Amino acid sequence: MFIISAIRTLWLTFLHLFHKTETVQYPEQKPYLAPRYRGRIVLTRDPDGEERCVSCYLCAAVCPCDCISLQKSAAPDQWTPEHFRINFSRCIFCGFCEEACPTSAIQLIPDFEMSEISRQSLVYEKEHLLIAGTGKVPDYNFYRIAGVATPGKPKGAALNESPPVDPRGLLP
Amino acid sequence: MDLNHLHLDVDRTIITAQPGQNVLEACLSAKLDLPYFCWHPALGAVGACRQCAVKLFNGPEDHTGTIVMACMTPVTPGMRLSITDPATAQFRDRVIEFVLTNHPHDCPVCEVGGECHLQDMTALVKHTERRYRFTKRTHLNQDLGPFIRHEMNRCIGCYRCVRFYRDYAGGDDFGVFGANRNIYFGRATPSTLDSEFAGNLVEVCPTGVFVDKPFATRFRRKWDMRATPSICPHCAVGCNITVQEREGEFRRVVNRYNAALNGYFLCDRGRFGVDFIRSPARRRTSAQRDAQGTETPLDIAAATAALAEPLQTNNVIGIGSPRASLEANAALRLLVGPAHFYAGVSDHDADIIATAITILRDAAVPIATPADAAQADAVLILGEDPSDIAPILALSLRQSAQRATSEALAIRQIPVWNDSAARRSAAGSPTPLIIATPMSTRLDDCATACLRPAPTALLTLAATIKAQLEHPSAADPTAIAAILCCASAPVIVVGGDSALMRAAANIVTTLRRIGIAARLSILLPEANSLGLGLFGAPPLSAALAAIQTGSAPHVIVLENDLHRRSETGPLEHAFSHIASLSVLDCIETPTTATADLAIAVGSFADANGTIVNQEGRAQRSFKAIFGADDPAPSWHILRNAGIAAGRLEATAWAGHRDLIEAMAANLPDLAACRILWPHTYEGDMQRPPTLPHRYSGRTAVNAASHVREPQPFANPDSPLGPTMEGTMPRTGLMPHVWSPGWNSVQANLKFPSAAEPGVMLFPASTRIPAELPLPHPPSPTPGILALPIRRVFGSEELSNLAPAVASRVGSPILRLNPADAATRGLSAGTMVDCTIGTTTVRRSIALDPTMAAGVAGLTIGVQGEANPPLPGSLTITASHPGEPS
Ligand code: SF4
Ligand code: SF4
Ligand code: SF4
Ligand code: SF4
Ligand code: FES
User: Fold this and answer.
1) ipTM confidence score
2) Quick check: helix, strand or coil at residue B230?
3) Which residues of B touch A97 (CB under 8 A)?
């Protein structure tokens, strides 16, 4: 029995000489990564080119590694993050942050080439995360829908809103 | 059978309820989840939102049942109810769907997101889908001042805000406008909300309409902030607060429920005043000043060594403070010795505090908590307006005055929680509130009688009331004695004058003697006035005298700005005789500016500390802010300086507990502080965690400077754990009030007993209190007698430094009777120089037509100004504009 099994193994190994090779010549040859592959995280902009992140803290709350830290700026109306930091040395690329984000600001992209010599270099600040475009969600602009007034969008000007009511009027 | 409980059958489960509750309250107390919006434990029920529907079965044979509003249904024994009944569940689902038709798409940018009662209730009802496809109604916001931001789109029309602001807090500049689906909650014209309780709208509103404005500039979600139980440092009521912090930075203050004191509410001085700890006027570094006035910054080790120098001599005087904790005062007193320790308050304040101690400790007069005041069936206010000195007490007094007595309600069979009926019935039989003060008060609007006697007449009035109580046949023109006699639990509030306090205590004693459970409430000036008084130290004037007779002593001043306590002349004269002046303070003051050694110390939020409120209730606050470079607490610095000076006793206070023991051994009055928190927590892994269980960003927050996570703080001196680990207690020491599915402040209903009462240093006794001798009546003051006016915003030293509070401070006034003003040719708005003793301050005239003749009210506590020695004889001179006063 033992001899047969050994011979069979040798035979199978020999046959592999004639199989198509699976080795990818990385980095000369790049693998295909689907657009929804969960790699490096970016912060995108809305179609008007403004920062999309409204510093709602939901990504930070959902992150199982607690590796997102941000702070809302002092501005009262249009919320934006004063700082936004991801410690990629902790991130497990689970994509929960992307799922939680109500504005599609935070997105995972098909890039995993983030190796560094020093762990400290894996701490990305907002300027490292922010990209110029809208990423995978081309159209969405949170502030066009939200009820808060923003510069250039007074009350009642958002999608599906009536003009502000006159509280002194008694008509329905 | 227990007569104090009754049993309800809710979905075949038996729950226990208290008689007099409504079904909603009973269900929530039994930890059942039932959604609601308009009911509030303090505001009662009006049945406005229709969200709390349950099915009520009329006996065991009834299988159909009727849908009723739980909040408007009194509990009855054996009642059978269903919450899960499908028709009722659908009813609740439709109600919330309707509420949300106009709700904005704001949650991510809404300041209450994550602690929103509307979010919680929507999740509870499991409403997920929006079917309404028409446009949303929108509203314009109003600018409501420095404390509150308005975001009216988020309103769900539950009416809690107007019910709180107008009905509960007595405000009249906020209301509801419009009709139908357009109703609008705001002011007639956009402007600052007048009421000093406006900040409570943030917690009362179940949505994000009212936003804590200063907090919004350094916003964090509730789940991201460390929360620490604390005590408000801004007045002598001692309201319980929760201080929230993130990354070493103070974020906000929220209410911490305490049934006896503040209940569910805080005043705006407490809520927004704590921001002083971020103010530019905070002293963060220690410094030494040489003879030329040049400052050399010192690190903490050098500052401690410098403080050790005076302690090595035998010639040192310590001056304590009513805004420092017992611990800090005790450490200084132990180091300089009881004979060299002085209280650092004016003679007038010292007199009031000493009298309060006589009344509380020696005479054992029963004291009224704010909760007692709210339940009182007759109230007499003597001498001072509590609205500005003890705002939460004033709010409680307003509750008793604005509602019919519980007896009157019982006769009419109106449950106490039935808010609108209970208020309406007050119109016919109001609870007596009699105000006898020299000046008008801000409770006059709900008083049944207002008298305006001058201080001497006030003493006579108090003596007359007592005489009439003893001899009912005596003439009683004011009928006050008759009213007090008819009550069963009257409350007398007194302040401002020690003779009047004694007279008021005697009225309570007389009432007790005739079998009426009367109580006294004494107004004291500062957060730890009573605690400092219990050290029995002489006032500041005695310290100044000792300095002048001594041989150039070294002076150590603890967290005190002496310029607010004494006239400038005597102070500077005394200080020209001293060898050195060392000042420990958390803020920059005129006193630190003249010190030879100014040491930065932690604020109340940087250290564990005990303070004693005006009832004699000792309460402890804990280190709440964990910043890397925060100054150490005063008593740590004093201890280390003491050790450096070779004072062996200081080595014994290694920890907070040791210092408390040393203090208790010296001062038996304060011995009860030992039991404030059990000391079994040392090394305890199960300490209540101050970080919430979803504290985010822990591996990234410090990563900008170093990617490796630092060790958590140890916080060895606290019963609270500094991390997320531990067990949440179900009682007072609960940093986070949270229950699954209940993320908003409404979660505190799930813990009806979770309040921390503190320790009463002078527990109530049943014996009849002793009668107090009255001092001889004072000789009449020549000319006009000036009395102090304290203001909610602007008269308290620390809260004045919070930017939002500072912007609410009005210009200081001299309040006069129009006749007195006319004889001097003064009219409203005129600027005058007011001289009392040797101090002159500039004020603008305000006329008060009801004011007693010959009396003037003078605003005190003005930032950067020496307080005039009040009460005192006033000289008014026309001021010459442009000339400094
Ligand atoms: S991918 Fe996962 S681990 Fe990484 S930041 Fe997002 S939530 Fe955190
Ligand atoms: S969830 Fe999205 S919008 Fe919110 S803070 Fe994170 S990135 Fe910004
Ligand atoms: S009030 Fe509540 S439900 Fe409404 S936007 Fe704010 S968080 Fe969301
Ligand atoms: S503003 Fe808030 S409290 Fe007032 S009615 Fe609207 S939702 Fe209720
Ligand atoms: S809570 Fe019962 S109707 Fe509003």
Assistant:
1) 0.91
2) strand
3) none
